[in-house]
Design brief:
537 residues, alpha/beta, TIM Barrel, 3-stranded mixed β-sheet, 17 helices, 18 strands, 28% helix, 13% strand, globular, binds 2-acetamido-2-deoxy-beta-D-glucopyranose, transmembrane helix, O16G_dom_2
Length: 537
């Protein structure tokens, strides 16, 4: 295992002295065997104000696992409302709420059946309004997960489409498929779903196949139908009217497919990818199609309409796990304020200073001029940092996240340095994990990073009063939890995170230029610099 050694030199000079925050950061790093060298030049130069989404940490709350208020073992909106102090404590001014829409929960809300309604498991529309009002009364912002890639098969549009109701007939992607010599029908092409096997599902009732890039219970919407675009735009308007401050647009890569359904995707001969798996194909016809641009541009237009009305900027961020950096950068031009940058998500234990540098430079050098960078180190689809990198790297990774230029996004629990939990096959909830069976589920299941938040040392770590929670609570919760980390005399990931998050309010960290400094196999260091009289460490 390579190490990113932290080397820390400190120096305070110039007009502005480092406050207590700066000092506690230094101590924090030293006591953890510093692995990052941070050199800052602070200054007082006034600059035009940045927008809220540029100055705030975006904090992702996975509603099922944040806080349960009604004792059913699943988190809910009133639960989140009761925990807003935590967001204030870590100075996260923007809450990104993962799906709370009505859903049969086959993919835990990423399979909405009605995106303008709240699922009863999370509460009611009143609960939502109360949560939003509380968020706003604290001067914080709230953004919603928006899921354009598909709906649930129980959605009334799909039900109507399946039944051939004229108005809804083309809301989804339907085809007759190919006729074989013996008179049966087969899918028109070799496209695969993310979960493996054909992306086409036969429906007796309509005598046609429909496309599903995810589960068969998640039929893909047909964005070539202007009515669909209008419906989705109206759904965004519905939430904007309720007062939300922006959206994280899920899975934009798969919004469109080639209009020509006879095109087979080429094999990519990836080692280890079996033919039934999504990974075995080069997704040139089902991913990253140019038409996506127009739809996102339309949503930008809508967001700006609200911005002009009340002066409150409406933020759009897209989610796309791109094959190439050029693809990723494309989404900066679609009207989104930024596409999520997953380069740091894919770092692992073998990654030393050079490798960290490559990941960071990849974004910084390819980003279009005038655009705003951003960093993500974890989310509900990926392993926890502490599991991926080792617990000793939690502070270093959070330091990168919070002090690099641009907007940081933190998935709930990463501020505590939480590790993945072990989930048995019997307890496995994630459909992706189940799909792989008892032998291989652990390779892909997304349950381990989705376990409940650890608040304190009481029953279920204060998450729920239920005897059984939807996923197991981390076994170490009695000693490892937010309250304990807050009260500890020493440096804890949570206190460190808070200090960094406050330090990030310095103009230098918000607006300063960035350049890597000493970089080798063992060290990654960088400079943030702002014009003016400087002080440096
Ligand atoms: C979604 O739910 C709302 C509130 O129950 C209802 O008015 C609306 O018709 C539903 N929309 C769809 C598409 O089912
Ligand atoms: C018809 O042909 C297809 C392939 O051409 C084959 O997969 C299928 O099993 C055949 N069905 C019958 C009933 O023979
Ligand atoms: C279906 O037919 C089209 C043209 O008729 C062909 O290009 C395509 O490869 C066929 N698909 C499959 C899966 O055989
Ligand atoms: C770790 O990261 C390196 C460099 O990006 C990559 O080549 C390697 O496949 C990764 N290893 C694992 C186990 O993910
Ligand atoms: C659990 O029950 C106790 C006692 O009734 C109550 O004070 C507490 O708020 C409940 N906590 C949750 C998370 O429901
Ligand atoms: C990129 C991606 O996978 N996006 C989402 C699309 O929908 C699926 C299935 O609901 C989600 O799991 C993904 O996060």
């Amino acid at each position: 295992m390579k190490r990113i050694y932290v080397q820390m030199s400190s120096f305070v000079k110039g007009r502005k002295a480092a406050g207590p925050v700066g000092i506690s950061i230094i101590l924090g790093l030293l006591s953890f065997m510093p692995r990052l060298l941070i050199v800052t030049f602070l200054s007082k130069t006034p600059e035009p104000p940045l927008e809220w989404w540029q100055t705030s940490v975006i904090y992702q709350v996975y509603p099922r696992s944040f806080q349960d208020s009604n004792g059913d073992g699943v988190g809910d909106l009133q639960g989140i409302r009761s925990r807003l102090d935590h967001l204030e404590y870590i100075n996260a001014r923007a809450l990104w709420l993962s799906p709370m829409y009505e859903s049969p929960m086959r993919d835990f809300g990423y399979d909405p059946s009605n995106i303008t309604n709240i699922d009863p498991i999370f509460g009611t529309m009143e609960d939502f309004d109360e949560l939003l009002a509380d968020v706003h009364s604290r001067g914080m912002k709230m953004i919603l997960d928006f899921i354009p890639n598909h709906t649930s098969d129980l959605h009334k549009w799909f039900q109507a489409s399946k039944a051939g109701v004229e108005e809804y007939k083309d809301y989804y992607v339907w085809t007759d498929g190919n006729l074989t010599a013996n008179g049966t029908r087969v899918p028109p092409n070799n496209w695969k779903s993310f979960f493996g096997d054909s992306a086409w599902e036969w429906v007796e009732e309509r005598q046609q196949f429909y496309l599903h890039q995810f589960l068969k219970e998640q039929p893909d919407l047909n964005y070539r139908n202007p009515k669909v675009v209008e419906e989705m735009t109206n759904a965004l308007r519905f939430w904007l009217e309720r007062g939300v401050d922006g959206f994280r647009i899920d899975a934009v890569l798969t919004m469109f497919e080639s209009a020509d359904l006879s095109l087979n995707e080429p094999l990519n001969n990836r080692p280890g990818a079996e033919l039934w798996q999504y990974e075995s194909l080069e997704h040139i016809y089902t991913s990253h199609q140019p038409e996506t641009y127009e739809v996102i541009a339309k949503w930008r237009h809508l967001a700006d309409e609200y911005y002009q009305k009340d002066g409150n900027y409406r933020f759009l961020v897209t989610e796309a796990y791109c094959e190439t950096i050029q693809q990723a950068m494309y989404y900066y031009h679609t009207g989104a304020d930024m596409p999520f940058n997953f380069d740091l998500v894919f770092l692992n234990r073998t990654c030393g200073g050079d490798c960290v540098d490559r990941a960071i430079s990849n974004w910084m050098t390819n980003m279009p001029i005038g655009k705003w960078p951003n960093w993500v180190i974890g989310n509900h689809d990926n392993k926890r940092i502490a599991t991926k990198m080792g617990t000793e790297f939690v502070n270093a990774m959070n330091t990168l996240l919070l002090l690099l230029p641009g907007t940081p996004t933190t998935y709930n629990g990463e501020e505590l340095g939480l590790t993945n939990i072990e989930v048995s096959y019997e307890d496995t909830q994630d459909p992706f994990g189940k799909r792989f069976g008892p032998e291989r589920y652990h390779e892909v299941s997304r349950d381990p990073p989705r376990s409940p938040m650890l608040w304190d040392s009481t029953h279920s770590s204060g998450f729920s009063n239920a005897t059984k929670t939807w996923l197991p609570v981390h076994p170490d919760y009695e000693i490892f939890n937010a309250e304990a980390q807050k009260k500890s005399e020493g440096v804890t990931p949570l206190k460190m995170y808070r200090d960094l998050s406050l330090l990030r309010q310095e103009a230098t960290f918000q607006r300063g230029t960035f350049r890597p400094l000493l970089v080798d196999e063992n060290i990654y260091s960088f400079v943030r610099e702002l014009e003016g009289e400087s002080l440096y460490y």
